[in-house]
Structures
1.
Amino acid sequence: MPHISYERREIAFKLVYYGPGMSGKTTNLAQIHRRLAAEVKTEMISLDTHEDRTLFFDFMPVELGTIDGYMIRFNMYTVPGQVYYEASRRLILDGADGVVFVIDSQPARLEENVMSYKRMEQNLRSYKYDPRSFPTVLQYNKRDCPSALPLGTFEREVSCQGVPTVEAIATEGRGVMETVRLLSRQVVERFHL
Ligand SMILES: Nc1nc2c(ncn2[C@@H]2O[C@H](COP(=O)(O)OP(=O)(O)OP(=O)(O)O)[C@@H](O)[C@H]2O)c(=O)[nH]1
Ligand SMILES: [Mg+2]
């Protein structure tokens, strides 16, 4: 559920970019920031990066205007992908309204993708979210890599057929806005139900 503040007249949704190390989560957020900065006031905060690896999380609030006098805000986060930050990943999922799972399309990374997704499902369950019905978008990133993973491979591996997918090259901004639009639509529609 989004966080509703009657005092501040604000509805805040939390979107989390999840996935294995180096799949392109921070790059997604940085691209969204570049595209939005001209139109809406937003600031991207990257905490404790070392050699471009996220050590805790990235955070970016985006205010999208008001509905019935309420400011609609999307608070976007990325998790740190390196294996030993499991505790941080779990914490960052707390209160999430939706996730983008960023897949690294390099075939050699398939197992890391799968392991990361399975842990994400466990982490979601630990907060009593049902991963089957939780708003999710699968982003097949790094489509520019040679012999990129055929679409559908990942869904078969983790049995999540039917989850919406987007192909992306985050470094070029391709598929990045489509991904966030797809997820935010799911998240808001669910809130209306
Ligand atoms: N070729 C290619 N490289 C990409 C793409 N997206 C991201 N990268 C590169 O992959 C590397 C890791 O990107 P990040 O966005 O930092 O990855 P991350 O998922 O945030 O990594 P962690 O914070 O360690 O979990 C960087 O060198 C990016 O430039 C893509 O679509 N194609
Ligand atoms: Mg990162």
2.
Amino acid sequence: MNPFTGVGVGLRRPHLEQVAALTESPVPFWEIAPENVVGQGGSRHRQVMKILERDPVITHGLSMSMGGFDEWERDVLDNLRGFLTTTRSPWHSEHLCWTSYGGATTHELLPMPFTRESVSHTVARARQMQAELPVPFLFENVSYYAELGAAEMSEKQFFAEVLEGADCGWLLDINNLYVNSRNHGFDAKEWLEGMPLQRVQQMHIAGHTWFEEDQLIIDTHGAAVIDPVIELMAWVLPRIGRPVPVLLERDTDIPTLEELLAERESIQKAYDAAFAPVPILGVGALRD
Ligand SMILES: [Fe+2]
């Protein structure tokens, strides 16, 4: 059976000891950032390695600054390739954004300028990255709060052109799309219309925080996923046409493992229902 389907969970530091002590995985798969493992040591590292050996894992990168200009160092690429081989991850993803400039890391996912030059630049970087990796490369759509410079196209057109130009897969973060739709005032379902959904290999789902006084939603990953985001996931899954894996992200205000697994379970129910056949009403049902 393909383990990379259903709803997985991001593996987080507060849960490592508890997860490593289990006899079997409580989730279909985990997601893990190579940056949090490669080059580390100590008991936490041993716990991660035990989990990686036992359970299916998908990798998700945080620091390659795909839209930036900083060259990737040879040893960083070699370590990443080795890690992907060790984990047997089916693909590797990064955000379509930039995170560093001139060697300085911001630790923020900063938006790209929506311009032709920016498309060409990012496509070239993605093709360069793909050539280094032993598995397919995916771009994730990010949440953004302001446009960088004068846009020559919409965010939607920009993202679609980069995917097509790079000929890469798509990690569809459904919460990022929802957050953008609320902050920038567009319809998330209309945004998805005409997008290359056949490129979606994985989805992310997460919670966010609503700041009333600023009329702004921030993609905090610090709360439970709200129903409209789960409904959007369930709406898009049949349109992708394949049971692509969905990953529950939680990065701040992290609950107990039991609470996180209970949330995963409820999202899994919505996931399963999205693929359930529509019941056909019998004659008796019509008579009632
Ligand atoms: Fe995400």
3.
Amino acid sequence: MGFEAINAVLPDQTDQINRLQYLLAEARLPVVSVIGKYNHGKSSLLNALVECEQFAVSDARETTALSDFEYQGVRWLDTPGLDADVARNDDQAAMTGAWQQSDIRLFVHCVREGELDQSECDMIDTLQQDALKSGRQTLIVLTQIEQVEEQTLANVQALMKQQAPKLPIIPVSAHRYRQGLESASALKIKKSGINELRQAVQSALAYVEQTRKDEVLALGESLEGLIDQGLTNLQARLLHQQAKRHALLANFVTEYQNLHSKLHKQLNRA
Ligand SMILES: Nc1nc2c(ncn2[C@@H]2O[C@H](COP(=O)(O)OP(=O)(O)O)[C@@H](O)[C@H]2O)c(=O)[nH]1
Ligand SMILES: [Mg+2]
């Protein structure tokens, strides 16, 4: 059965079906994506991780579609912001694509904004629900830390730990990292946190191959059950339609016979 046929039987399971299709397509590099609100520093963070200015950075809403870059055996994926009030249809398409393709998600939050807001908590909840099914990992990355005092950073981090107790929170500054590289300052690079983040991503990447295999099996099993159920429902619908057609046909035959005998009677009378 092809994926289109499965989609036709299970129209509610498009996300699962697309993810399975993506995983089965061909040998794919592990995918690390960023996710978070506009202007929190997603593109800048990716630039630090891939060590070049590959992703467009701006104070205005810049990234409107997925953009990706291969670096050190990983496909790094930039996404538009999450903010529902300014999101457009193409943003939605991009976010769906990122959801389908990502193995590891970096949830980006800027420390200047304080604790997570409701929409961010909801997104983290969704990611954690997904992790239970797919095994895909999320790391929270607290960005732009050079912009606040150490105490503020510690306070925000403590609040976020309460909001998302199960996820690691890694504080970073993409700007400090870049300044460190430009001025060859090992201290600035160290204090940027980017190398700690790199290590955390490397550790998560080590699980991707096995996680994908487990995910394919789990998706296959779950879809198999749903397909069986879908086919049974389809059969029942067909039988119901057949019965309806039979009833219509029987009705038609009776009406036709009545008409026929009426005509006969009238012809005999004439
Ligand atoms: N001070 C400071 N500004 C940053 C840092 N990272 C990003 N920015 C700035 O924040 C703005 C938004 O950054 P961008 O990476 O485009 O955010 P995105 O919309 O989440 O992709 C830009 O003006 C960046 O220069 C950082 O580590 N420190
Ligand atoms: Mg961006």
4.
Amino acid sequence: MNLLDSIKERTKEDHQSVEKVLITELKSLSSMEQYGHLLERLYAFYKPLEDEIQLAIDTTFISDISARKHTERLLQDIHAIHASFKPDTTFNPLSISSTSYALGILYVIEGSTLGGQIIVKMLDKQLSVTSVGAHTYFDSYSEETQKMWTSFKDSMLKIEATINEEEMIRGAKETFSALQSHLTQTKS
Ligand code: HEM
């Protein structure tokens, strides 16, 4: 079993759990206002985390690390819904103890792009988010999504020998769990 099989296997339940929370919320959305609020909460969570990840992981680990950013698109979608937006800065990012831990966080962030196509379809049925241009975060890398995921996995396997597997899995598990708590606590 390689490092990626292992992280997938050991975070399977964490994924199922956060997916359930997010799907329940997505299904309950009945206005663009509510969707905007969800995006703002995701921005509050991901922005500080993304900033830290970009500092913690350099191109010797992930050659295209600077392309693996998603919060600009979140901001774009929020602005497509309403122009004025004051970011909530109450979320304390996870404390990154090592590069392996940071790679675990990045695994969760990059993996979350894979459910995006399903989510955009769900959102379009309910709210036609694409028609107002508020779909770009969940659409992530769009038609390049699979390619970006494959190249992320290739990069991880290339540096497998330098990664502390337990630390990486801890980073991923703590990210899943922090996101789930954040979504639950900030739901109005
Ligand atoms: C509505 C919510 C979600 C749906 C429908 C969904 C769906 C999916 C799907 C279809 C895959 C690909 C499975 C495969 O090809 O093997 C996937 C993988 C993944 N998702 Fe989600 N997902 C959701 C939410 C999330 C969230 C919120 C996160 C993280 C914050 C996340 C993290 C991941 C990760 C890390 C993987 C990669 C698993 C692996 O192959 O190692 N997902 N998801």
